[in-house]
Amino acid sequence: MTASTLCRTAAKSRIAAVCAVAVAGTLLLTACGDQTDSAAKKDSGTASADKAPLADLVPQAIKDKGEIKVGSDIAYPPVEFKDKSGKTVGIDPDLADALGKQLGVKFVFENGTFDTLLTGLRSKRYDLAMSAMTDTKDRQDGVDSETKKKVGEGVDFIDYFTAGVSIYTKKGDDKGISTWSDLCGKRLVVQRGTVSHDLAKAESAKCGGKGKISIEAFDNDLEAQTRLRGGGADAGSSDFPVAAYAVKTSGGGNDFQLVGDQVEAAPYGIAVAKGNDDLTKAIEAALNAVIKNGDYDKVIAKWGVDAGAVTEAKINGGS
């Protein structure tokens, strides 16, 4: 879910993600005290703090809680979504689990609409936002991408993947669409607050006599896909990995097709509120550790998004 600029070039994409769902149970302490606590941590699937190699980097307030709350729009397969059993799965949850083992804390997903995640960070509802969020200068500075007005303090990003933006249509019915300019006079569905939304608004302003793009924005990408599938739009747009996953899986691969090339390749980042430098450094170190030990590559390969993989964590690498 990138954030905007104008369409520049076709590009390759990649994604990755962070977040694993965990349930914290109440520990009944007995004379065995430490042994009981150790066993519970072992059963949780996340490395206990005394065994985690980077536990000393975790801020004390988070150590005390034993978890990192992650704001995420959990309706963006394959980055993060609910499987048939209701479990949160995807690239980000798998990466979060790997990061948690390095830091000795649980990463706990909390669901929210994409355009409210940064507000949740500012209000301290979340410790992190991890939701295929594109690292942009506007988001770093707390600036609204459309009005260019200051709306908050901004965030710091730890970049962990790269992705471009794609257009898709109903299979066998591309409506003559192969570029963004072909959307003029057409109906487009997108997720609200994403780079696809911003690109559509910017392109529509240039349409002139061809007619503006009729843009319908939804709270999540699955709603946009449903609208297109039902004939309520001519095309949809989302980040390439998400669009490609929808093309591959929706209706057994019979609902949608990709049209044209990707544009606006940019990094996905894990967002941390400004001023939380210790947490930012801890996440950066953990991400570099899982890249080095091979856990990162395993997650990327599992979800088939090797083209978007990164070789090191970067802070605020977006533009």
The parts where pLDDT drops under 50 for at least 5 residues are 3-46
| β-strand amount | 15-25%
Mean of pLDDT: 86
Order of helices and strands: HHEEEHEHEHEEHEHEHEHHE
Helical segment count? 10
Q: How would a textbook summarize the main sheet? A: 6 strands, mixed
Provide the structure class. Answer: alpha/beta
Please give the radius of gyration in angstroms.
Answer: 20 Å
Question: Rough shape?
Answer: globular
**β-strand number:** 11
- Helix coverage percent: 25-40%
Give a nutshell description of this structure.
This protein has 319 residues and is an alpha/beta fold. The protein has helices at residues 34-43, 60-65, 91-103, 117-122, 137-141, 195-204, 221-229, 240-249, 277-293, 295-302; strands spanning 67-72, 81-82, 88-89, 106-111, 128-129, 155-170, 187-191, 214-218, 235-239, 256-273, 314-315.
Which key terms come to mind for this protein?
319 residues; alpha/beta; six-stranded mixed sheet; three-stranded parallel sheet; 10 helices; 22% strand; globular; disordered N terminus
Structural account:
There is one protein chain. By secondary structure, this protein is of the alpha/beta class. It has ten helices and eleven strands. It has helices at residues 34-43, 60-65, 91-103, 117-122, 137-141, 195-204, 221-229, 240-249, 277-293, 295-302; strands spanning 67-72, 81-82, 88-89, 106-111, 128-129, 155-170, 187-191, 214-218, 235-239, 256-273, 314-315. The strands form three sheets. Strands 6, 7, 8, 9, 10 and 11 form a six-stranded mixed sheet that branches. Strands 4-1-5 form a three-stranded parallel sheet. A hairpin with a 5-residue loop joins β2 and β3 (88-89). α3 (91-103) packs across α9 (277-293). It is globular, with a radius of gyration of 20 Å. Residues 3-46 have low confidence and may be disordered.
